[in-house]
Amino acid sequence: MRSQKQQPAGPPQVFTPSFAKSSAFTRKGLRSFWEYRDLGVAEGTHGRMKATVLRALGKCPEGGTGWHYHELDFQMYYVLKGSLRTQVEGQGELTFEAGDSWLQPPRTRHNVVCFSEDLELLEVIGPADFRSEACEPAL
Question: What count of other Cβ atoms lies within 10 Å of the Cβ of residue 80?
Fold first, then answer.
């Protein structure tokens, strides 16, 4: 017997593949020192979620990203390659390396202090469109 799945509100999700060989990285994104590869999740979920691979374009700028938070409902990262050091509200300073991940609750203040030049991250957020706000340090 098949179990009945509850469907989320809004239009149903659409199967949306993303092939590395035909998907380009672009500089269109939040930070000028990273490039971004959109994985098509926003299209497939009608904007409810978004998945992106972020890749460093060289050295981390002095001061990192600066303290900020994001107005969103869901934010998760997985380090694909390289490493980064970040300061997170209520957690202190943490270093993440390839294979590490973290779930960051909405509006958590943070500052990416530095990252390796070979950094690649998978970012999953919801909704696809969100605001990022500068803020006072949290530590």
Answer: 15
3-class DSSP state for residue 130? coil
3-state secondary structure of 1: coil
DSSP assignment of 24-46 equals: --BS-SS-TTEEEEE-SHHHHHT
* Contact indicator for 119, 57 with CB cutoff of 8 Å: no
pLDDT digits (tens, 9 = 90+) for 71-120: 999 999 999 999 999 999 999 999 999 999 999 999 999 999 999 999 99
Q: What is the 3-state secondary structure (H, E, C) of 62-110?
A: CCCCCCEEEECCEEEEEEEECEEEEEECCCEEEEEECCCEEECCCCCCE
Give residue 1's identity as a one-letter amino acid code: M
SS3 13: coil
Q: Taking the complete model, does pTM exceed 0.85, yes or no?
A: yes
Write the CB contacts of 130 (distance below 8 Å, at least 6 apart in sequence): 70, 71, 72
